[in-house]
Amino acid sequence: MLLDFWYFDRLLRVGGVVGFNDCDWPAVHKVLKFVLTHRRYTEVDVGLTARYVDYSRRRELVRRLRGVPSSLYCRNASDRYFVKDEAWEPRWDFFAEF
């Protein structure tokens, strides 16, 4: 997934939009974190209602008992869209967790 995005980022012009499906899958979730930390993209609100998913029943129960909102604890499983703001490359010594 990351390699697909890497090449797609090279082909996409500034102002173009990229969409991601199955955003709760671990590989896609990791790529979305990369997009937000290592590239200049802004998420576009297309009017889809967010659907949050947690596959662990134990964690879901603990989250509900603690009263933590699912938007802070679970992955957004909705389709997500990002617009490319600029063709930016980080410096060679840039580091950020993703």
Task: Describe the fold and architecture.
The chain is of the alpha+beta class. The protein has one domain (2-86). Helix content is 38%, strand content 20%. The chain has four helices and five strands; from the N terminus they run H-E-H-E-E-H-H-E-E. The chain has helices at 2-11, 26-38, 57-66, 70-73; strands at 17-20, 40-44, 52-53, 75-76, 80-86. The strands form two sheets. A three-stranded antiparallel sheet has the order 1-5-2, with helices on one face. Strands 3-4 form a two-stranded antiparallel ribbon. The chain is elongated. The protein starts with a helix and ends in a 12-residue tail after the last strand. The model has no long low-confidence stretch (mean pLDDT 85).
Short description:
The protein has helices at residues 2-11, 26-38, 57-66, 70-73; strands spanning 17-20, 40-44, 52-53, 75-76, 80-86. The protein has 98 residues and is α+β, with helices and mostly antiparallel strands. The chain has one domain.
List the helices and strands and how they pair.
Layout: H1 2-11, E1 17-20, H2 26-38, E2 40-44, E3 52-53, H3 57-66, H4 70-73, E4 75-76, E5 80-86
